[in-house]
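From the shared-data thread, chain only:
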Amino acid sequence: MMTVFREIKKHPQNFIILFILFIGISVLLFIFRFDSHSQRRIVYFTAGLYLAWSLFHHYKRGDLSLSIFIEYLLLALLALLVVVATL
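Structure, as tokens:
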């Protein structure tokens, strides 16, 4: 367990995505569980944050390319399609 905290202290930017997905999907969707319009907005916003974080992460690492951008864009769109279709 302590190694996880050491890793978070060493590379906190790598764990931001976990925070984004946990807050965006778990907490907010539970709070707005009776409002499907707000749930869709939360899903759109979370997918946008996921895409922005991944581009920022690869930019900082110096390996951002068009193929990486397309990959993350398609993953975000697939997640949107799956989640919004179930709401």
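The mean pLDDT is 81.
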